[in-house]
Amino acid sequence: MLDHHLPEELLELAASARGVASKRIAPLVRETEQSHAFSPRIREILSDAGFLGLVVPERFGGIDLDIRAEAVVVEEIARVYPSAATYLTAHWTASKMLVRAAEAGQDDPWLLAELERIAAGEHLGAIAATEPEAGSDLAQLATRARRDGEEWVLDGGKRFITNGGAADFYSVMARTGGEGSRGISVFFVAADRSGIAVSRLENKMGLHGSATAEITIDDVRVPADHLLGTQDRGFGMLMAGLDGGRVTVAAMSVGIAAAALEHSLEYARGRQQFGRVISEFQGVQFLLADMEIAVTAARALTRDAAEALALGDPSGSQLASIAKAYASDAAMRVTTDAVQVHGGYGYIDEYPVEMLMRDAKIGQIYEGTNQLQRALIARRSLQGTN
Predict the structure, then answer these.
(1) Do 323 and 347 belong to one domain?
(2) Chain-centre distance for alpha carbon 46
(3) Is 367 part of the annotated catalytic residue set?
(4) What CATH number does residue 145 fall under?
(5) What Rg do the C-alpha atoms of the chain give, in angstroms?
(6) CA-to-CA separations, 308 to 4, 304, 367, in angstroms, rounded
(7) Beta strand ranges found along 238-303 (DSSP E)
(8) What is the pLDDT of residue 139?
């Protein structure tokens, strides 16, 4: 899809995100990567730009945009620093749980006030769903919540929580009923509640500037009205957001791949070997051509999936899975080839392609592994529901 096919408001949003990323985030990348820590300064930049509140509708204090806006913002941020893009994607997923509850009629004063804070960029969220034994199979989560008078009491633990330890609130998935997906609810839990704590921060292959935490939930008490939506129906609330999450993973992958291509083109034009710039060698040209093909195709698939979801097209779920699987696989191939174009220099952190290669890998894993996406794609195709 060509950029000029995007509505004017999305073109302006993309340009704004590109400027924020290149002018304000880029100078912080090296320092943040070396620190292996979440950057409050980057969070502040994203908040000032209005990106934290992007998913809150106007009637709750935000603006009326949709998944198409999320996709263009994430792509532009990821082109400069993929870790920063995860601040947004994790926060948006957690925030949408509150939005869905409010849109379904839950009008508790605390909820409406919290949505206003999110819209203003004052609060950062994290989705606390994954557990050590419940990753792709979230229906088997073990964290429990029991009713005690006018409170719910939560006990358990979560793993691989993006923004963990940096968030102001968690949207926590916990079991309130029987086994399986029909007994799970979602709770809003402020990060400063007694009993919720980060037990460790993960040391990761990539995304060094993104916080990924293991969280303990020990006798955490929350008011009864902090259950979001309908009791025992939280799994459906989470699943309703997975298609959008897959599109933003695809968009992040497109941004990573596009950056790797840009760096490779620049390097190939300037690097000389055997008395010639390496861009004159057919072997290098073929690598660059395949990278260009992959980026262009991945971007088109991602934007088509976002469009389908925004318009409520029945093909949205299928396209989201296709875009996520293709774009993240493409990002892995493109970044690997980018390192190859750079030769030995691609293997050291003097050039950003080694970071991009490491950061690309997670796209094939989270929001449902690409093996799971292929199973879903095949199932829908065979059932004729795509």
Answers:
(1) yes
(2) 14
(3) yes
(4) 2.40.110.10
(5) 21
(6) 18, 6, 19
(7) 272-273, 276-277
(8) 78
- Which residues have C-beta within 8 Å of that of residue 31, sequence separation ≥ 6? none
Do 271 and 375 sit in the same domain of this protein? yes
Beta strands 144-148 and 184-190, pairing class: unpaired
Instruction: Please tell me the total count of domains within the chain.
Output: 3
> Is 273 found in the same domain as 227?
no
Residues 110, 227: one domain?
Answer: no
- Look up the CATH number of the domain holding residue 332: 1.20.140.10
pLDDT of residue 3: 64
Distance of alpha carbon 319 from the chain centroid: 17
Q: What's the angle, vertex CA 137, arms to CA 313 and CA 225, rounded to 5?
A: 75
The set of residues, in sequence order, having a beta carbon less than 8 Å from that of 265 and lying 6+ positions away, is 279, 288
Phi, psi of 148 (to 5 degrees): -135, 90
The partner residues of 144 in beta bridges, in order of sequence, read 155, 175
Check residue 48 and give its pLDDT. Answer: 97
Give CA angle at 86 (331, 174), nearest 5°.
120
| Amino acid of residue 315 | S
What pLDDT is stored for residue 180 in this prediction? 83
From 114, 131, 214, 367, active-site residue = 367
The structure tokens 């947004």 sit at: 88
Query: Is 75 strand, coil or helix?
Result: helix
Tokens at 4, concatenated: 């000029």
Same domain, 111 and 171: no
Phi/psi of residue 191, each to 5°? -65, -20
67 and 14, same structural domain?
Answer: yes
State how far the Cα of 360 lies from the Cα of 332, in Å rounded to an integer.
6
- Are 289 and 372 members of one domain? yes
Asked if 107 and 132 sit in the same domain, the reply is no
Q: Which residues of the chain have pLDDT under 50?
A: 1
pLDDT at residue 5, as a whole number:
73
Range of the domain at 75: 3-119
Per residue in 95-118, pLDDT tens? 999 999 999 999 999 999 999 999
Tokens of 151: 């409170």
Q: How far is CA 144 from CA 160, 178, 383, in A?
A: 18, 10, 35
